[in-house]
Amino acid sequence: MSLAAYCIICCRRIGASTPPPQSTTYWRDINTFSTIDVEDHECAVWLLLRKSQSGDRTARLQAVQEMSETHHYQYRIIAQACDLRTLIGLARSKESDLRFFLPPPPLPSLNEDTCIEEELRQLLASLPQTELDECIQYFTSLALSESSQSLAAQKGGLWCFGGNGLPYAESFGEVPSATVEMFCLEALVKHSEIPTHCDEIEANGGLQLLQRLYQLHKDCPKIQRNIMRIIGNMALNEHLHSTIVHSGWVSILAEAMKSPRIMEASHAARTLANLDRETMREKYQDGVYVLHPQYRTSQPIKADVLFIHGLMGAAFKTWRQQDNEQLLTEKILEDDARYTTCWPKTWLARDCPALRIISVEYDTSLSDWRTRCPMERKSIAFRSDELLRKLRAAGVGDRPVIWVSHSMGGLLVKKMLLEASKKPEMSTVINNTRGIIFYSVPHHGSHLAEYSVNIRYLLFPSLEVKELSKDSPALKTLQDDFLEFAKDKNFQVLNFVETLPTYIGSMIKLHVVPVESADLGIGDLIPVDVDHLNICKPKKKDAFLYQRTLQFICETLAKDLED
């Protein structure tokens, strides 16, 4: 039965007048109701749809929840008839069936004389190239240069990636193409941080092009991750929400949300949260990911726990369970209690469901040889200001907060709190900070920089590594200022420290943070028989490392979680 015919039958049964049938009928076109036969189960879905467009926000939220929890045989009717706000709400409802979401509309055909790589290059070239910071200029120039070389090489029979003429082999074609696409996507990620550039990306067909690329690279998480970052950044601009939804991205995001891969689900959750202005005030900028709750929830959220990684870390991999040879050789599901790729999302979220758990990601490097942007020499002070601004936009400071940090991440936390104390608009961040956990944080410096003159890998240590030097005046000032500040504010502190050396590469064996450097001067200092990388990776859920962390969080937030 067609949607229009079903509309007419339902409206007649509930005593409403109906407009003449149209080829496409939406619920918003049916706005006249008289008597309602509540026993007619076939009309229940239409009543829910009407309720979802109520002027009462509470009624709208209840309607979306009822839709997601009730299994209708009219999934497709709801998909065609619900409005943008309801569709996003369904995508952010854990129990929603994917049949609620229509497939994305057909993508425009590629021109016969072009390829997706060329279209990606044209999109990038169409964006404003003036008044950009050095890193955006770098990524854009690199992407346009490499894509030009690859296209010329394909036409000429050679592959000139990186300026080297390599014999072109048909079987190797996908590898260079994916690499060039990565350059373009990295540049687009940077551009999408600028609102006016998001408008240009949308106007030039970027939403459809990125969708095509996303579907082509289902087996390439790195490409999909960067595409998700771009869409997530575009979703920060509310005037683009309608276009993002109508281009079909919500159905893709709803499916990604149900992925067992934490990284994929978290990127989708960030984008959908930015689209959901019905229940969300916060906005999640690039690099800020909510690990829990990722769906809409009736559970009151009473406090925030923030995870800040260190050098060469990441928002997800830093906080995985410690690797185990036996576990790595077995096929283990993500929700299996024996192993997790992100213990804050699985273990901590289950033990403390009233917490909002956020993990932050930022680029770091050990050596300037390996930095992603040669011009990006960001100091701890610069990074702390950048992260503090992003976290405040995410609502950090509105609730009680515990900070959890590893290595250099702890120095960033200290700097962020000191800077926040100087800004009246950031006062809530200070007033609501309850405690801090430091996993092997080099409060008094690290041996990393000292090894740079003898180790080829660290011959040109990055600015981050230089700032960890034991004789760094900035590090000493940060330690002295924060210690006095933390005592004055009576922050609760827990310090862990490694006791085993760490292998960096295949040649370097180094005790990164010695016990004396991990001693902040307040709070317990607990040595653990692991290396620097594993100090924040518990072996299992009942291991001391996790249980002591959980105990600290629960005790520090006890009063807040009871209220």
UniProtKB/TrEMBL annotation:
- Location of this chain's protein in the cell: Endoplasmic reticulum; Membrane; Mitochondrion
Stated name of the protein = Protein SERAC1
What gene is this protein a product of?
SERAC1
Q: Its topology with respect to the membrane?
A: Single-pass membrane protein
Record's family?
Belongs to the SERAC1 family.
Keyword terms of this UniProt record: Endoplasmic reticulum, Lipid biosynthesis, Lipid metabolism, Membrane, Mitochondrion, Phospholipid biosynthesis, Phospholipid metabolism, Transmembrane, Transmembrane helix
Source species, please?
A: Felis catus
The record's annotation in InterPro entries points to: AB_hydrolase_fold (IPR029058), ARM-like (IPR011989), ARM-type_fold (IPR016024), SERAC1 (IPR052374)
The coiled-coil regions, if any, are: none
